[in-house]
Amino acid sequence: GAVGLQNINNADFSTPPDGGNGRMRMFLWDRSAAGAVEYLNIDAPSEVAGKVQTSLASFGPQITSTPTTGEIVIVDDGTGNPTQGCFNPTNNLNGKIALIDRGNCEFGKKILNAEKAGAIAVIICNFEDAFVNMGAGAVGSQVTIPSVFVRQSDCAVFRVFADMGLTATIAAPVD
């Protein structure tokens, strides 16, 4: 069966009275930061399909088991740092999942800019292989689309496949 969340990054040992057999249980260990969960699934292409570990925003809608699915498009806001999404996107995000780089402005602003341009969800890429919890900043309270935060190494793969039918689903894991 599925490993429950309480059994990730954990182990236990029981010590019965003398003569009884001790019991050690060791559970699945992941390499992510505490609290990282697989809220992102890459659906296609098959070369990169699978679950991706994420952290979440402290704002916007709670991600539920109801899926949000779409094509992943790299944001271009037409500036010197076009993939950071600090300004209104110049490319078509309508009905798409926007891929945006961390840096230069608040998470809430990046996600709200993408939402106003028609994005149905946002993936924020870190510049290192670590997780952070995304804070709302000044405008995050206006965000109504789901967003996730992923490691730099995962985003590097997404960039390679972004123009090759890269599609994903954002949803809470179901046991």
Question: What features would you describe in this structure?
Answer:
- The chain has 175 residues and is α/β, with parallel strands linked by helices.
- It is built from two helices and nine strands.
- Mean pLDDT is 88; it is low at 1-8 and 29-33.
- The strands form two sheets. The protein has a seven-stranded mixed β-barrel with strand order 3-4-8-7-6-5-9. Strands 1-2 form a two-stranded antiparallel sheet.
- It has helices at 107-116, 152-161, and strands at residues 11-14, 23-26, 37-44, 50-56, 68-74, 97-101, 121-125, 147-150, 167-170.
- Helix content is 11%, strand content 27%.
Biggest sheet overview: 7 strands, mixed, barrel
In the predicted model, the low-confidence regions spanning at least 5 consecutive residues are 1-8, 29-33
The percent range for helix content is: 10-25%
- Following the backbone from N to C, one meets helices and strands in this order, namely EEEEEEHEEHE
Radius of gyration: 19 Å
Number of extended strands = 9
In short:
This protein is of the alpha/beta class and 175 residues long.
Topology:
Layout: E1 11-14, E2 23-26, E3 37-44, E4 50-56, E5 68-74, E6 97-101, H1 107-116, E7 121-125, E8 147-150, H2 152-161, E9 167-170
Parallel strand pairs: 5-6, 6-7, 7-8
Antiparallel strand pairs: 1-2, 3-4, 3-9, 4-8, 5-9
Keywords:
two-stranded antiparallel ribbon; disordered N terminus; 175 residues; 27% strand; alpha/beta
